[in-house]
Structure formats: structure tokens, C-alpha cells
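Work package 3, deliverable 3.1, input record:
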Amino acid sequence: MNKENIIPKLNQFVGQYVNINEITPDLDLFASGRVNSLFAMQLVLFVEKEFGFKVENEDLDYENFKSIDAILGFVQRKLTPVG
Amino acid sequence: MNFELTLEQKEAKIRFRKFVDKYVVPNAAIYDRLEETPLELIKAMANEGYLSALIPSKYFAKAAESNNRDDRGENIDDDSCANISKEMDSLTWGLLCEEIGHASGSLVSLLTVHSMVIQALLKWGTEAQRSHWLPLLATGEVIGGFGLTEIKTGSDAKNAQTTAVQDGDSYIINGQKKWISFGQVARVFLILAQVDGKATAFLIEREREGFSTEPINGMLGFRSAMLATLNMNNCKIPASNMVGKIGFGFSHVAGTALDQGRYCIAWGCLGLAQGCVDTSLAYSTERKQFGVSLKEHQLIQELIADMITQTQAARMLCYNAAFLKENKDPSLIMETSMAKYFASRTALKVASDAVQIHGANGCSDRYPVERHFRDAKIMEIIEGSNQMQQIIISRYGYQRYLSSQSK
């Protein structure tokens, strides 16, 4: 799945919680206080269901979740076959 | 969304009710008075597969196999062990919590905390942690406990004071956790501690040096839930006991556990409310006042009508949460919060009305409704107080409103 397919899905999901027109793709959603701690698990459930992979222990890195750009990069890495 | 139970779910519900009628109903008031849940009852629940219900069978196939053999290594045909290898779907698990709650809110908390630890390990544990702990949790050889709340920080869990300081391949834990359900008997605890100010989850075994528990007695409700205070005094644990990563203890590990906790409590509250309805229907049919049954009095009918309707509304929210949980839908987090909030409010209101219908009898421990009433109040406080649920739900509403303005 390429970037052009992923971004609209991310925007639609994140757009349920924040005004998507008010944020930039690199805005730290958590540090800016726009989402609460429940969003973290909602985000995990969303990427698992939407993109069909499991978020695991080793994926727990703030850099994977903090912004739309970060989530995009994470999803792309997870969907890229290893090796 | 289909609210009709499958044949298997209907049969499971009947089995749960039979178990509860046999083991819980005759003894719940006694356990409440003694402030304990006997290990025999916990073992009976384990034998029915209730403690392993959410664990994939690959983690305990050997344990189940050995349980199904006698001392000579021969297979035994024992119904009490037959269910241990069946993994339950979300709705069936909810029905189990409902049926247990029908007779004892206290006992629901065993399923709650045990399954909170299981879910957190399944989602965020390492394979080594899962392989070690899940077989033990499945058979009930080990009961899981969940340590988040502290004396000074209840709902403000992110600011908990318990600390974990790295020391080579170990962490040194210092702090105290309070109001921990089944803390008197649990053998492994999932606790939250601050690592350099970042909330982090760890497993602590009861046997660790520097770890101790103190029973808490004299509670209003959940009196048989064997609450305890957990003390960690320079308690040294291996770094491999960390669950998840540093800084992800509250948002992800506890987040997973608390979602499971809210789900169990919601269903347990539904059962508690239904138990009060059933008891009140029976009592108001038998009890005569002014020459007729209580049920002939319209003001009693009003109470009964509201109790039935509110309980049914709570049931719909629980079924909705089950549907979303089974489908791993992201909205399950919020919808489960709503189910917990509404079902616990309903449980307290319905239990209060049940006491009212029973009059002075309802205030006596010869009838179950006074115990349900006390347990229901606890339901409004545990796994996130209802005020916290209201804050979460209202924020969600405003988020949705503001985001809708941008489209």
C-alpha cells in the first residue's frame, strides 16, 4: 500500500478526534494535548484493523505514533516485507 | 449487529448459571461476612475454564493435558477439566461476567483483575513472559493482580509515586499500591511505576524480596474480594519483568488492562442489576401487604418497570461493546467506557430500588439485595470512577463535534 492510499485513511481516523484542518502532518498530537491517553489504544486498534498487522511490544516507540507523519512511516515500515 | 445468542452461547450461559447456583448463590453472603473467597471456589472456577477463557490454547495445552490425566498418567473423563482448553469469544466472556455478577459482584472482580493481567500480557508481553505466565494463569495456579492505584493517586494514575530505578539488569521498585482486588492471594502483579518520570509497567512476583501485602478489611462492598495494600521496599526484579516499554505503561499496557476491566465490570453490573430484578420480582409476588401481593401496588410496578427497562438498556450497551470487541473496532474503547458508566449507575439504582421493594427485609443480610447494593456502589468507583468516565465521554463528544466542523 502506497503513501497516497494510507494518508486519507489516517486523516479520516485522526479527524474523528481533532480538527484536521488545524494541524500539520508533523504536529505532535500527544504533546500538543489534542488527544488523550485513550487515543493511544484507539490508534493501535485502528492501524491493526485498517492495515492488517499487529502492533507488538517492539513497536512501542513514541516515534511511531506521535504525528500523522510518524504513523504513516510506521505503517509503511510494517507493510514492507523484510529481507 | 446481531443481538441473538448462538446456540453455543445460550448453552454456555446455562452452564454458567448452573455453576453459580451450585457454588456462589449458597455461599456469597457467607463469604461477604467472612471477607474472603475460598481457594476451593477459585479452583472450581479454574476447573471450569473460567480463568483460562481468554488465553489461546497454545499457551496451556500441556497444562490442560496434564489436568486431564490422573496420577498414573491415564486420561480421565472429568467434566471439570473438559472446558479448560476452550477460548471464549467476547460475548460469551461477557455472559460469564454477567452470570457471576448475578450472584456476587465481589467475585466478578476476580475475573476482572485476572483477565486484566492476561490481556496486558497477551498484547504487550514478550513471548518469554507469555510462555511463562499464561500457563500458570490459565490453571489458576497463579492469580493475577493489577496494581495501579496509590494512596495519593487514584484517578490521577499518570502521576503515581511508585518508582523503578535501573540497577544493571534489574530494577529496584519502591512504593505502595492500595485497594488491590485479590491482592491477598494473587501471586503475580502487574504494577505501574515511574522510570525517570515515565509510567512503565512491570510484573512483580509475590515471592520477591522486598515485596509484601497487607489485607484490607472493613470495606463497604466487594468484601470478599480480598483487597490488599502492596508494599514494595527496595524490591529488586529482573529488567525482563518490564511489560511493554518505558513510558508506555499507562497509555498502552494499563490502557489495555483497563479496557478489559471496564468490559468485565460493565457485564458484572448487568448481572448484578438482573439479579436485583429477579429477586424483586419473586419477592413482590410472594409478599402480601394490605391483602394483596406487593406486585399489585402501582408504585411497586413503577419501580419494577424502571428496573427492568434500565437493566435492558445496560444490556444493549454491553452487547454493543461485545460486538465491537469481537471485531477489534477502535470505537470499542469509548463504547466500553459508556457501557461501564451506564451499567454501574444502573446497578446502583436498581439495587437501591430492590432494597426499597424488600423494605426492612432488604436491609437484612438474609436477603441478597443489601449486598448487591453495597457492591454496586463499588462498581461506580473501580476501573475508573464514573466521574472519570463522564470526563472521557464528554471530551469524546466535543472532539467529534469540533472535528465535524472541519468537514
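Helices of chain A lie at 3-14, 37-51, 68-79.
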